[in-house]
Task: structure prediction
Amino acid sequence: MFKRFRRLRINENIRSMVRENFLNIDDLIYPLFVINSKGIKKEIPSMPGVFQMSLDEILKECKEIKELGIKAIILFGVLESDKKDSCGSDALDENGLIATSIKTIKKEFPDLIVISDLCFCEYTDHGHCGIIDMKTKSVDNDATLEISAKQALIHAKAGVDMIAPSGMMDGIIYTLRKTLDENGFENLPIMAYSTKFASNYYGPFRDVAQSAPSYGDRKTYQMDFANAKEALMESLEDEKQGADILMIKPALAYLDIVKELSLSSKLPICVYNVSGEYALLQAGKKAGVIDYDKIVLETMIAFKRAGAKLIITYHAKELAKLLQNKGA
Result:
């Protein structure tokens, strides 16, 4: 006798009963990009449906997000070139772009979970993720830890709900956890960009965040995408240092890393469904060569099946509408 697997596939109701993984609106985190100005909502050509927005437009977007049932955003600041400098001073200013935006959003929408991306590439004139060591022309790890701790306190005092440091400095989670705890923010969670690869999937993001390096690349601090064992060590080290959530970035080409981490850690895992992944599906939709909605849903289930609990995705609003219609 052979096993008849098709018995449990015979109709939709039975398939639903035995389905192992599901996507929920609560799983979604929506990225937003705030700029200094008023009345601006500028679409990014490489990322249809993604915008740079002034704070007044961000507030409108947050209202729509809440109405769709999305509970969390991750916020990126996009600074004008003439306000950038070598150490990202605006990110260290209590009245700077990101701090002001956090305060305003939390005042207007206290129940919306605001996660702040903590980095310096959007604020530095060289586009790298911290202070440059002039001898090596690369980021000075320990000097960047110092200013990262200052930036974390700025975000915490502004009322952020969670901090997500993306610069991939060694020791960043230990440094931030120690700083936050010593300043009365021991209950503020940290979502570590614990395994962030030096990926070619980030291209469109650098259009929207205006954060491309002015020289070189980020391969001395972001991970080599050929390495799996090192990727696992990176995330497990962040867990030891006090991370509350571990992130794999990018997502789609790294499901093996997500699965391996899910088998090695009990912490919640987040994946960042990055700009290049989003742009590829948008291009397929425009060309008429894919069933866009079905492929977006299938992609999200792949993340869940691999072991992700949370998904940062530019598809979040589309998915929320699809999930609402499916449940109607």
Notes: The chain has a mean pLDDT of 91. The longest strand covers residues 28-35. The chain is about 40% helix and 20% strand. The two ends are 42 Å apart (CA to CA).
